[in-house]
Amino acid sequence: MNFAPQDLDMAEMNLCSPDTDSVSRFGDLLDTAVRKLADLGRHFSSDEGKILFLKERLNEGRFHLAILGQFKRGKSTLLNAFLGEAILPTSVVPLTAIPTFVEYGQERKITIRYQHNRPSDEFSNKSLDEINKILEAVVTEEGNPENHLGVLQVEILHPAPILKHGVVLIDTPGIGSTFTHNTQATLNFLPQCDAALFVVSADPPLTEVESQFLQNVFPKVSQLFFIFNKIDYLNDREKEAAVGFFKKVLKQKIPSTEEYPIFCVSARMGLDSKMSNDPSLWGQSGIDKVENHLVCFLLSEKTRTLLDALAKKSLDIIAAAIMKLQLQITSLKMPIEDLEKRLGLFEKELKNAERLKLSAQDMLIGDRKRTLALLEEHAETLRKASEDHLSKAIDRSFSEMSNGTVNEQKILDVLGEEVTSFFGESAGRESSLFARLVASTLSPHQERADDIITLIRKAAADLFEIPFHAPDSSEAFETKRRPYWVQRKRVPSLPVVVPEEVIDKLLPAKTRKTRLKKRLARQIEALTRQNVENLRWATLQNLNDAFQRFATTLDQRFEETINATHGAIRAAYVKRKEHTESIDENLRRLSVAAECLDKIRSEIAALNTK
Ligand SMILES: Nc1nc2c(ncn2[C@@H]2O[C@H](COP(=O)(O)OP(=O)(O)OP(=O)(O)O)[C@@H](O)[C@H]2O)c(=O)[nH]1
Ligand SMILES: [Mg+2]
């Protein structure tokens, strides 16, 4: 079975060339919207800023193609295969920690951008080896643990032909590893993606973390390609079965992803082929098909996809601004008594919404308490499991020592290793368990918050008899991604310090053994206590932070909605009271702006973006 689409020839590519007229028309429409919003003053400056940002994206004309997926699926290797050389660090342990943007340049050049406006570092004229070292020190978890260097992003210029079509390929940190801050870095970065290559592999085909991540990615990027990597591990029959299974799971979990192409590749083989100049391997790697498809896609669809993504975003911003204008216009037009009456009714609705918000907050506090209580239960279970595990390991070490001899150092080494591996593994398991728990706990709160916001907007629209626009789902996603797991606190493996008991050496072997066992029991208890506490404390901070961020975001959204409705009506009401003479002029200005924005909205909606 061939899962890759047929190669398209050049003639076919030319048939679907991008519609440049639509792009320039869209640019003009955004410019006009910016001017109109700027004229409307400070009430509309945030809408103006959002449209300006979209215009910048359109002007840049660059297309952000992100390589996404769970850690260790081979994302960095795939990007290297496209570039034809092993530029980006790859490893068997979770590695990439900083989003890395690769775009066309005649010579290789690296720019490292830092947080807090710190000046960037630039490196050019470097050998592949030197580039490797620089990147290893900056973009990897090992070289730059928890991003202590404060790197914002890394940009690489590279002469690979695939980049000539204006695409920026982006390597992202893998999601779902124990390094939860890497998951966060990728989630934060999603709004900048225009399309994505979602990398999976057969081992296993689709994890729960991946399917959850896909559900987040899916509404956010306009175009998605699946890359089924590491096929070199499989024969044809196994490959068919694995991909079939992947498709089945995908269909069950996210039915709407069905139409997206799946490419079977071996990124490693692709890279080897380019590095050893062996074209036969290139064909076998399957990367040729991805490249052909991408080139065609980039030639034909790039502009349209970008246009489509930006148009959707702009329609939403403009609709919200129009609603604000319509509320003001209606408020300025209606008899003042009528306005006061409707304002009063709306304020009652707001009180109702406020009550709902308070009870939503209570529920959130309740859920937070329950989650924290669960954490305490887990800590207790972990404490018991650790003591049990470490005691058994020590007993095993004793019994493995022949004819009653006791090698104390060896036992201490075993204890040190067991502590590190037990708590390393527990930290990973617990952090992903609580990350999932937080996400599923917050999801109904998100829905409840959306309902309250819709209620306010709908009440304003009904009372003032203006059209109602439901908020876009992307807004919901923005808030959803924030409460995701936020931080990692390293769980240090504690040094196993057993004081040198010189005196023991003088005692008979049996007494020595008993004394050592007692000491070890105390040691196990202390190590367990400290490590469990570290883990509990780190998780507690993460939980508190996640709930706190969520609550703050909800407050902000609530406040924004009230400003856009009640704020707009009140502003009109105050004008009516204070400046009766300028009302007509005001009304004319707002009506012209609303009409103009509405026209812009219809024109954008009618653009040929597909
Ligand atoms: N057999 C095989 N191994 C591969 C292939 N692609 C990548 N690998 C190996 O898989 C491991 C992980 O590859 P990376 O490219 O570092 O994976 P990643 O998805 O970037 O990982 P993170 O940066 O941690 O998210 C490395 O040991 C690669 O050599 C492939 O096609 N076949
Ligand atoms: Mg990587």
What does the average pLDDT come to? 81
State the helicity in percent bands. 55-70%
Distance between the termini: 30 Å
With strands numbered from the N-terminus, the spatial order across the biggest sheet is 4-3-5-2-6-1-7-8-9
Please give the count of helices.
17
In this entry the ligands are: guanosine-5'-triphosphate, magnesium ion
The succession of helices and strands, N to C, reads HHHEHEEEHEEHEHEHEHHHHHHHHH
* Molecular shape: globular
How would you sum up the major sheet? Answer: 9 strands, mixed
Tell me what you see in this structure:
The chain is an alpha/beta fold and 610 residues long. The chain has 2 domains: 64-300, Rossmann fold; 317-576 and 586-606, no CATH class. The protein has 17 helices and 9 strands. The protein has a 9-stranded mixed sheet, sandwiched between helices. Helix 8 (236-253) links the parallel strand 8 and strand 9 (262-264). It binds guanosine-5'-triphosphate (GTP) and magnesium ion. Magnesium ion binds next to helix 4. Magnesium ion (MG) binds next to helix 4.
Question: Helices, strands, pairings?
Answer:
Elements: H1 10-15, H2 20-39, H3 45-60, E1 63-69, H4 75-83, E2 100-104, E3 109-114, E4 121-124, H5 128-139, E5 151-158, E6 167-171, H6 180-189, E7 195-201, H7 208-217, E8 223-229, H8 236-253, E9 262-264, H9 267-276, H10 279-285, H11 287-300, H12 302-333, H13 336-400, H14 408-463, H15 473-481, H16 509-578, H17 583-606
Parallel strand pairs: 1-6, 1-7, 2-5, 7-8, 8-9
Antiparallel strand pairs: 2-6, 3-4, 3-5
The structure holds guanosine-5'-triphosphate and magnesium ion.
